[in-house]
Amino acid sequence: MASVGSTAAAALENLLELLPVDPCELSDRQVVDWLGRVTEAKRHIEALELAGAAEVNRRSDPEPGGDSLAKRLGHKTPAQAVEAMTGSSAKSARRLIADVEDLAKLPVVEAAVLDGRIGRDSAEAIAVELKKAIPTADAGRVAVAESELVRLATGSSADRVREEAQKVAAELSPESIDERAKRAHEQRYFWIGKEDNGLAPVSGRLPVEVAAKARMVLDGFASPKRKVSFADAGDGGADAPADTRTIGQKYADGFDEVFSAQARIADKLEVGGDHPTVWVTTTEAELAAGKGLAFFAGASEPTSVQVARKAVCTGGLQEVVLTETGAFLRLGRSKRAFSRRQRRAMAARDGGECIIPGCRVPAYRCEAHHVISWFEGGPTDVGNGVLVCPFHHDEVEKGPWQLKMVDGRPWVRWSYGGKTTEWQPVGSHLTPLSAT
Q1: Is the distance from CB of 269 to CB of 217 less than 8 angstroms?
Q2: If 221 and its partner were Cys, which of 44, 115, 148, 254 is the partner (CB 3.0–4.6 Å)?
Q3: Contact 113, 50 (CB under 8 A)
Q4: Element (H, E) at 411
Q5: Which Pfam families would you find in this protein's record (predicted)?
Q6: pLDDT tens column, 367-386
Q7: CA 122, CA 267: separation in Å to the nearest integer?
Q8: Is 70 inside any structural domain?
Q9: pLDDT in tens, 39-74
């Protein structure tokens, strides 16, 4: 292991400039800056801790016939010695030594940790997955994988890094993923127990592909956009009761409907569903300037253009052009929303989730968004579309998240106050290992 700490002093001094500090008195921008400095300093402290544990581990495993530091300190293992020296839990000490040993097999990742470029959580996420491939994979391809994952880790969460590392490890060593799939297939089961007091217990373990299909179907029944209604209810829906079912109860009712094989099941399994058409009512002058009020079909009150921009992404758009005196002039051509086929293509391209880093909302529960708005001439095609959850759809329209398309692939960054992150590609964007 090379010397460590060459960049730690600057990071610690950067934090010390703000101390002491009362977080309650900081502005939003100052809190963001402060936490960023704390995180940077933490990475360097973790590097120093790992370096120290690595040395304890090395001195506790000498050449045959030599002395062991751990034993001289009265402990059987290096982990026990670290536990005693640091006052940490036995579990934390064992994890620290395990990380040291794993990183020793991955020099690129180890170097990135020791100079503070990535944190321990991300390093561990990479090491745990890549070490599975080391015995059978080509060393050169492993080194390339290390570099790509380190690059990803400098701007992504540890959870995202772990997901990408799992994919890379499977590519490096396809045999391991095949063995896991075979084992899962052999261990699958589903069981409905004996009824007790009117209820039957259900248990089981399903392969991931089966669970994904079941979850997607049941999520369709649990969707908040799917309301309870009755055929004889009034047009305004005033007679429809509020849906007070829990998510679990909705899942149970969905299970019932799936196996009842009702004729209307195809309509009930939609996730996200069809969205209302947006009528954009303008005068001819406003239309030329790209302005106007937006009306949802069936709603009497107009909404803002900001809301319309979001709705145009997920539903249809039709312009109703009026004269300056309010008389009808013409009905514009209807513009279609993203199709199901386009949504599936975007999901496959971008990783199957909301594209905002850290958001785990699956693609089938997301809304399609025009990166370049319809109002600005953006087309409704895969090269101008992304999938975002409803919350982040609002944030993209008005908040700190920013998107752009580069060679048909979405890139994202976050900007707030004076802090702006680097642009990052979305989804499974690592360089293909087979190309090296």
Answers
A1: yes
A2: 254
A3: yes
A4: strand 409-416
A5: DUF222
A6: 889 998 876 778 889 999 99
A7: 43
A8: yes
A9: 999 999 999 999 999 999 999 986 666 688 998 899
Same domain as 170, residue 87: yes
Q: Which domain holds residue 425?
A: 340-435
For residues 269 and 214, is the Cβ–Cβ distance under 8 A?
no
Provide the whole-model pTM.
0.57
Cα 424 to Cα 59, 238, 295, 381, distances in angstroms: 42, 47, 36, 21
DSSP β-ladder status, 317-322 and 278-283: parallel
CA atoms lying within 13 Å on the CB side of residue 391: 5
- Rounded Cα distance between 123 and 130, Å, is 11
Rounding to the nearest 10 degrees, give the CA dihedral for residues 146, 150, 153, 155. Answer: -140
3-state secondary structure of 215: helix
The number of folded domains in the chain is: 4
User: Quick one: which of 315, 317, 320 has its CA closest to 332?
Assistant: 320
| 383 in Cβ contact with 377 (< 8 Å) | no
- For 152-201, list the strands marked E by DSSP: 189-192
Residue ranges of the alpha helices (H) in 247-370? 247-260, 265-268, 284-289, 305-314, 340-350
Query: Is 146 in the same domain as 53?
Result: yes
Mark whether 117 and 215 lie in a shared domain: no
One domain for residues 236 and 385 = no
Helix and strand numbers, DSSP H then E, in the chain: 17, 12
- 29 in any annotated domain: yes
Distance between CA atoms of 196 and 188, rounded to whole angstroms? 25
The DSSP 8-state label assigned to residue 61 in this structure reads S
Q: What CA–CA distance (Å, rounded) separates 313 from 367?
A: 8
Same-domain status, 25 and 156: yes
DSSP state of 274: P
What is the widest separation between alpha-carbon atoms in the chain?
100
Tell whether the model's pLDDT for residue 4 goes beyond 80: no
Residues 72 and 98 in one domain: yes
